[in-house]
Write a structure and sequence with these properties.
This protein has 257 residues and is an alpha/beta fold. The chain folds into two domains: 36 residues; 175 residues, Vaccinia Virus protein VP39 (Rossmann fold, 3-Layer(aba) Sandwich). Strand 6 and strand 7 form a beta hairpin. The protein is globular and about 70 Å long. It starts with a helix and ends in a 15-residue tail after the last strand. It binds S-adenosylmethionine. S-adenosylmethionine binds next to helix 7.
Length: 257
């Protein structure tokens, strides 16, 4: 009551001083932008320059530091392309890392998200920075303990490369059993750098190109789309796989039929 009364009185005064108020707010934003960018740059240095390196990335470092400093938007792509596959029901996110995508891309447009990872330190960050009422974080090694249930969507972002080809084959079979008949598996990985050297020590298998990735899904799914985006410092691969329509197919539920 008092708050809305104050607002009513203050607003006409504030209108008179809009240019000055905006100048002060712009200065405050500039200062806080520098501060938040620098603190996240320091966090990245501590996490990545001092061993041991983590197996996941804290995407608030992308949000507050790298996006602005490097102009690279690819860190948002997996969330955006993954969201195109969402069907609004239950989502299983495998190897969710810091949970940034579970909270900021997948949770609002889904009934529930079960997000799992085998690294307790990743889940600690996920729960602290990326909790949401319909997101459940579970500690699970997906090779032995993939969460049970039936899901309209399974998301496997930036993680398929952490498994051997034999493990990928077994895991895809397990995922297929958990998907609804027209459920969609979506995900992201990166192309190898053609030097024979892995881009991260945690990687088991890096993909040569789109075909090399697609061949893993073909035995399991009728419809498979693999596509790429190329940035100066990274060559990205995305996938959608389903027995039903995948995004941008003629019979995709969100397309004009
Ligand atoms: C590069 S991170 C990707 C995290 C997140 N999906 C993203 O897009 O930012 C790879 C994640 O896979 C997880 N991971 C690797 N092997 C796993 C396994 N066997 N079971 C569950 N999680 C695993 C790691 O702990 C790490 O968080």
């Amino acid at each position: 009551m008092l708050k809305s009364l104050l607002k009513k009185i203050m607003k006409p005064i504030a209108i008179q001083f809009k240019p000055q108020l905006e100048m002060v707010a712009q200065a405050e934003c500039a200062l806080s932008r520098k501060w938040v960018a620098n603190s996240h740059k320091r966090l990245k240095w501590i996490q990545w320059a001092l061993p041991p390196q983590p197996e996941h990335f804290d995407h608030q470092i992308d949000l507050f530091h790298q996006f602005m400093d490097h102009r690279s938007s690819y860190w948002t792509e997996r969330g955006v392309f993954g969201s195109l596959a969402l069907k609004g029901g239950k989502v299983l996110e495998l190897a969710c890392g810091d949970g940034f995508n579970a909270r900021n891309f997948y949770s609002l447009r889904s009934m529930a998200v079960v997000a799992c990872d085998f690294d307790p330190s990743a889940l600690k960050i996920a729960k602290a920075k990326n909790s949401a009422p319909n997101v459940t974080y579970l500690l699970a090694d997906i090779r032995t303990d993939m969460p049970q249930g039936t899901f309209e969507n399974i998301v496997w972002d930036a993680a398929i490369e952490h498994f051997t080809p034999a493990e990928i084959e077994t895991l895809l079979g397990e995922m297929k059993m958990r998907l609804t008949p027209d459920g969609i598996l979506s995900g992201y990985t990166l192309v190898d750098n053609q030097t024979g050297e892995k881009q991260l020590t945690h990687h088991e298998y890096e993909f040569r190109d789109k075909e090399d990735l697609r061949r893993f899904f073909l035995p399991h799914f009728k419809n498979v789309t693999v596509f790429e985006t190329v940035f100066p410092d990274r060559h990205n691969l995305y996938f959608w796989a389903s027995d039903g329509p995948v995004p941008f197919a003629k019979d995709w539920q969100f397309a004009l039929s």
